[in-house]
Amino acid sequence: MFFFRLMVSFVCLLSLPVVLANAPTPLKPLAISAGEWPPYLGADLPEQGMAARLIRDIFKDAGYQVTFQFLPWARAYQDSKQGRYAATAVWMKVPSREQDFWFSDAVLNETFVFFHLKSNPLYFESLADLANVRLGGGLGYSYGIAFDTEVAKNNIDISRVGDTAQNFRRLAKGRIQAFPEEMHVGYHVLKTQLPELAAQIDHNPKPLLINQSFVLFPKTSGNSEQLQQLFNHGLANYRANGRYQQYFNLP
């Protein structure tokens, strides 16, 4: 009996390296900042939103476990710029941001439109038509170089608040006449947060901006370029094998 137990122990010891060799490699933690932007990003959304799920899965394939920290957009940008987060998601490409960050390949394709009350339609053919319109906007948002330039020249009047729902409430109360937002984001907020306002609100069909958004990697961090390359490689694979589109099957 003693000999049998000894042999069993010996066999178990021999098999231990095989078990350890087959054990999965622990995922390395990776903190990414983000702003609230449903249905793409949101702390309370299923899997924290479609874009968050995509980013998390791509990095998981590369050996990283992503944790998202949801912050006001401006703080998400500044904290990531200072290297407190490995990346921040997701942002439009503008020259000033390229000074601070390495950009991934495009993660999202978006269409920005002006939301307005059905009872007060917005005439919009060019930026010049916005000169006397009381516009709302989001803190930390860029609406494209051309629009931002007109704002900087004081040719467009825009007052900004922290989130899309606030802009819809201001619209309903007549405090603003219109505000730009990504079309799917706007209607998602109406449907899930403000269904009582949905029947009052429409959008101008002419896009203000057809845009792409990116994951940003801070130039202050030494491994940002490596993370950028890993992410771009994974994103390209997802697009090539058809998996990418499964994340964004919007109604």
Written description of the protein model:
There is one protein chain. This protein is of the alpha/beta class and 251 residues long. The chain folds into 2 domains: 28-109 and 212-247, D-Maltodextrin-Binding Protein, domain 2 (3-Layer(aba) Sandwich), CATH 3.40.190.10; 110-210, D-Maltodextrin-Binding Protein, domain 2 (3-Layer(aba) Sandwich), CATH 3.40.190.10. The chain contains 8 helices and 10 strands. Strands 1, 2, 3, 4, 5, 8, 9 and 10 form an 8-stranded mixed β-sheet that branches. It has a two-stranded parallel ribbon with strand order 6-7.
Structural descriptors:
alpha/beta, D-Maltodextrin-Binding Protein, domain 2, 10 strands, 8-stranded mixed sheet, 2 domains, 251 residues, two-stranded parallel sheet
Question: What's the topology here?
Answer:
Layout (H helix, E strand, L loop, with lengths): L1 H21 L5 E7 L15 H12 L2 E7 L2 H9 L5 E6 L2 H4 L2 E3 L4 E10 L17 E4 L6 H8 L5 E4 L2 H9 L6 E4 H11 L7 E3 L5 E10 L5 H17 L11
Parallel strand pairs: 1-2, 1-3, 6-7
Antiparallel strand pairs: 3-10, 4-10, 5-8, 5-9, 5-10
The CATH top-level class label of the largest domain: Alpha Beta
Q: Specify Rg, calculated over alpha carbons.
A: 24 Å
Largest sheet: 8 strands, mixed
**Alpha-beta content class:** alpha/beta
Brief write-up:
With 251 residues, the chain is α/β, with parallel strands linked by helices. It folds into two domains: 28-109 and 212-247, D-Maltodextrin-Binding Protein, domain 2; 110-210, D-Maltodextrin-Binding Protein, domain 2, CATH 3.40.190.
